[in-house]
Amino acid sequence: MRILVQPISTIKHPNLAGERSTWHPGPRHLSVVSNSSVTIRAPPTSTDQLFSAPLRDPLLCRHRLKREGEKKPCTEAGKMMVRMLEDDLFPSTPGKVKIERTHGASRKLQRCFASANTLFLWALFVIALFASYLSFHSFVDTSSRYLSASWGGLHWERQIRASAAVRRPEGITVLVTGAAGFVGSHVSLALRRRGDGVVGLDNFNAYYDPSLKKARKALLASHGVFVVEGDVNDAHLLAKLFDTVPFTHVMHLAAQAGVRYAIQNPASYVHSNVAGLVALLEASKSADPQPAIVWASSSSVYGLNDKVPFSESHRTDRPASLYAATKKAGEEITHVYNHIYGLSVTGLRFFTVYGPWGRPDMAYFSFTRNILQGKPITVYRGRDGADLARDFTYIDDVVKGCVAALDTAEASTGSGGRKRRQAQYRIYNLGNTSPVTVPALVSILERHLKVDAKKNIVEMPGNGDVPFTHANITAARAELGYKPTTNLETGLKKFVKWYLSYYGYSRRLGGKSQELVA
Ligand SMILES: O=C(O)[C@H]1O[C@H](OP(=O)(O)OP(=O)(O)OC[C@H]2O[C@@H](n3ccc(=O)[nH]c3=O)[C@H](O)[C@@H]2O)[C@H](O)[C@@H](O)[C@H]1O
After folding, report:
1. Ligand 1 atom nearest residue 381's Cα
2. Strand locations in 306-416 (E)
3. Which are the contacts of 316, defined by CB distance < 8 A and separation ≥ 6?
4. Is 323 a catalytic residue?
5. Which of 182, 207, 259 to mutate to test ligand 1, by most ligand atoms within 8 A of the CB atom?
6. Closest CA to 4 of 71, 50, 64
7. 362 CA from centroid of ligand 1 (Å)
8. Which of 278, 393, 487, 493 is most buried (CB neighbours < 10 A)?
9. For 268-308, how does the pLDDT look when each residue is reduced to its tens digit (9 = 90+)?
10. What pTM does this model have?
11. Going by CA atoms, what residue is nearest to atom 31 of ligand 1?
């Protein structure tokens, strides 16, 4: 509000040109007194000039008004004006002159409206400010997501839909997480080959050489499988994928793998295997239709269990590594989503899966590399001097188990955040049922590579390893028709053939390598 008033002490009488004196206007001189201005009309002898000026210093004005009032008693009109000015300028000061009731009421009403208006304007201003902040924030968020992520857009959606297209009657549509990984790439290819719709998702992290993951992606692309580059923790991306494609199944293989690496980077296990799993389950339970979930647990959940062979009914509450603990947590977490939201869940406990396109961090892979490069390998031995043993399982057998799990999974039973009835919840061992010691594994590799390994045999460090694994696969055999057929000798031969070809040893070694890969 702008107040216009001419302080009395500074008003010059129009008849006393240039002379500074005080003049008290009578009632007839007060032509306008309003909430926003006071205008004083000069006496009739004057030129009827109007005086009006902005009030710059209300305190000074009040002081002067009071002082003048003391020196020369004001006329009634003058007093009234003083009161009105005081009332305008210091409306809430207690003990001041009271003005007429009707005036007071209307002024209070006016003031009330004025303050309500002001408040309203301020509220609007604050809301507008907040809205601009939010839209700016969302703009920055969206832009940075589009700049940093390689997903989104019409072309991207077309690729997703083409990849998800089913090419056989009764075919399923599967979102494969970790599709550029070892097991993920094999499962994706198997599904695609039989005509299912497959969309891959992988974050291509640098846990091991990402160029191998890119090569797997290229292999999948050549078979019409599109792999989205993104993280399972990205809820926006997951929601977009489920909006774009009504997936019937999710094959969740994205994880932080490796037992011993958990000592170095524990957070990555929580990020991928716990938070990532929850993000995926959240997106899945909200999807319409809800997909059935098949996911990778691990033989490591048996931990310190010493009853053999490991059966699904054995204790799994004594994990030996953080990796194992996060996989065990995954089994509990998936149970919650099954129980509350009706997600159909199948957990598969993989037993040291190996084969072509495998993981460079695993023993059979790194041993092969070192043996070929003439570098020593470290072979762990138990504290009691016994050899360590694993139920090494060939990739093709595991893929058959995964596909069978997808095919036998019942539909989820929830929608809109609630389940209609209890959904299926299953856990199976996918092992080979014939453990082989680590020294025996090394001997097979030496034979296939025709190179002797330089072995350093050391005691197993206490970093999460367990001395042996051995799967009981009775349940998987009965309910999935799972029947592993590849022994370690045959499986490693296939692996070595792939390794030599992929890393160019076939070309470099000429005839000798042809013999090796035959
Ligand atoms: O079944 C699983 O759930 C897990 O299987 C796999 O773990 P592991 O069985 O530990 O396989 P892997 O590292 O190949 O070691 C094999 C053997 O070689 C020994 N080993 C290892 C390294 C070394 O330098 N020397 C050595 O003797 C080592 O002591 C061990 O006895 C997956 O990596 C894991 O992600 C998970 O899927």
Report:
1. 27
2. 345-350, 353-354, 376-381, 389-390, 393-394, 414-415
3. 301, 302, 303, 305, 328, 331
4. yes
5. 259
6. 50
7. 6
8. 393
9. 999 999 999 999 999 999 999 999 999 999 999 999 999 99
10. 0.74
11. 388
